[in-house]
Write a structure and sequence with these properties.
alpha+beta; Arc Repressor Mutant, subunit A
Length: 331
């Protein structure tokens, strides 16, 4: 950001004072600033320089440009359409970088192609551009969007530990291009914001680019899908959190916010899978217990009785009885 002041020949002293960043802090490579200080400095710099791109591009993006970009996507029926519009309209602002949105299987991918040598502006330009898109996407559907991967083309910087504070997912450096990908389930979510909400957000929009969004509207749904596919494999919270690309503490917090817990969802999925196998297969009780993630047949039988009031064998016989009766009547 200070290089932007240098590019435009403007003294950054007032901006640094407003953010309470001292000259001694700037002189120590190991120094860190708070998210609030970054927010204040960024806001001051964009307004004073009248460039929301902070000198990255061959032309300025005047104050209010990204608000216009948000507004252009706000009437979209769902997140997928909103992201396509964001990328298309961003190209009207600059072609120094080009944002591309593609869907490949279960991955929704946002990529950035660089058409201009960004030099020492590259890192801040690319990470901020990705944070802009991700922050807006989370805000507009009112849901945290975990990322499966975040890629950057430059080498791992000395301050790489900061990236975990900015992006909810694994970050990779030295890749062919910058971008991120996430689960396509989020693309169908409808937008939950209107013009009034946008005006309020734009009064203090920068936290969306500095801080991660918290509430995840589809975490429980994603977790059920993963547990159904890998119930026997995901035996503990760490394994489940790894599969979702989030920390165990984050997993428990979000599920609590949604009014549920990991154990409750595991029991729900195990019960569903066990009932399906008892009704539709001839597999033994021991095999079914293993399939749904129980270490022993005895513990499975105890859990199943708590869920249904019957043993697995009793449930299977009761489920088969109507079919036997129907067969006798038909004959």
């Amino acid at each position: 950001m200070l290089r932007a002041f240098e590019k435009y020949g403007v003294d950054p002293s007032e901006a640094l004072r407003s953010a309470r960043i001292s000259s001694s802090t700037l002189q120590r490579p190991s120094s860190r600033v708070t998210a609030k200080q970054v927010e204040v400095l960024t806001d001051f710099a964009m307004r004073q320089l009248d460039d929301e791109a902070l000198g990255w591009f061959s032309r300025k993006l005047p104050w209010g440009t990204y608000g216009m970009l948000c507004r252009a996507s706000l009437t979209s029926p769902n997140l997928g359409v909103a992201l396509k519009r964001w990328c298309r309209h961003h190209r009207l602002l600059t072609d120094d970088i080009v944002l591309k949105f593609v869907v490949a299987g279960s991955d929704a991918q946002l990529r950035i192609d660089e058409n201009r040598h960004l030099g020492h502006m590259q890192e801040l330009c690319l990470l901020t551009s990705l944070r802009y898109v991700h922050g807006y996407a989370c805000w507009v559907i009112d849901s945290r969007i975990p990322l499966r991967s975040i890629d950057f083309p430059f080498p791992k910087p000395p301050h790489a530990d900061v990236y975990s504070l900015l992006f909810p997912g694994p970050v990779h450096f030295g890749r062919g291009r910058s971008g991120f990908c996430f689960d396509t389930q989020y693309l169908s979510l409808p937008l939950r914001r209107d013009e009034k909400a946008l005006r309020t957000m734009l009064l203090r929009a920068l936290p969306l680019t500095v801080r991660q969004y918290q509430s995840d509207r589809v975490l429980a749904q994603r977790l059920r899908t993963i547990l159904r596919a890998r119930c026997g494999e995901l035996s503990n919270a760490q394994a489940v959190a790894n599969a979702l690309n989030i920390a165990p503490r984050t997993l428990h917090r979000h599920l609590k916010d949604e009014g549920t817990s990991l154990q409750a969802l595991k029991d729900e999925v195990r019960r569903e899978l066990a009932i399906e196998e008892l009704e539709r297969s001839a597999r033994s009780i021991k095999q079914i217990a293993h399939d749904v993630g129980f270490e022993s047949e005895k513990s499975f039988m105890r859990a199943f009785r708590n869920w249904t009031g019957q043993s697995p064998g009793e449930y299977r016989r009761a489920a088969a009885a109507p079919h036997a009766t129907t067969g006798r009547l038909a004959s």
